[in-house]
Design goal:
Layout: H1 2-16, E1 18-22, E2 25-34, E3 39-45, E4 48-53, E5 56-62, E6 67-72, E7 77-84, H2 100-116, E8 119-125, E9 132-138, E10 141-150, E11 153-161, H3 167-180
Antiparallel strand pairs: 1-2, 2-3, 3-4, 5-6, 6-7, 7-11, 8-9, 9-10, 10-11
């Protein structure tokens, strides 16, 4: 009976969440809102979860960047990604842990500048934690990224800046998400 219950739960998770198999490893994702705490939890099995303040709904999944987009009731947009460091082509043992966000920033910003002709700005590096806040401007679009590592899991949070959703609001939210999850 217990095995049937466990299989049923697994089946429901697969049916009502995103399921992705990339790089030889299957992943199951989901979003859960806890009304009593006013916190949304993004879940990515087998990598972990991320708590986000407020109510967010699941948007599209970007399989290239491994980001799940979430949309708030007042139309804010974030992209969240949790992955293993070893999934990236540039990974090596010398850059794991708190050195990984900087290596990812260098890799991603080079791509953004060279391929997309984007303007990239490094806004802040926290040398103690290795976390990085950076910004990308491409034509009329502006995005903020907050990168950090926790137990060799790489966290990448993106905030989409718009006319009504300002850069200062994005920076504040990104820092709040980081604080909630560390």
């Amino acid at each position: 009976m217990k095995i049937v219950l466990k299989l049923s739960i697994l089946y429901v998770l697969i049916q009502f969440s995103g399921c992705y198999s990339g790089g030889g490893q299957s992943e199951i994702t989901g979003v859960h809102y806890d009304e009593t705490k006013n916190i949304t939890t993004y879940i990515k099995i087998p990598f972990g979860n991320m708590e986000i303040p407020g109510k967010w709904k699941q948007g599209k999944m970007d399989y290239v960047s491994r980001s799940q987009y979430l949309i708030s009731d007042d139309s804010e947009i974030i992209g969240v990604s949790i992955s293993g460091e070893r999934q990236y082509s540039f990974y090596n043992d010398s850059i794991k842990g708190k050195r990984f966000p900087k290596a990812h920033f260098e890799w991603e910003s080079k791509y953004m500048k060279d391929t997309l002709n984007a303007k990239v700005s490094l806004l802040k590096i926290d040398s103690a934690s290795g976390s990085i806040l950076w910004e990308v401007e491409l034509k009329e679009a502006k995005n903020l990224f907050f990168l950090y590592d926790k137990n060799e899991r790489f966290y990448n949070i993106k905030y989409v800046v718009t006319k009504s959703k300002t850069e200062s609001r994005g920076i504040s939210l990104l820092h709040e998400i980081y604080a909630m999850n560390n």
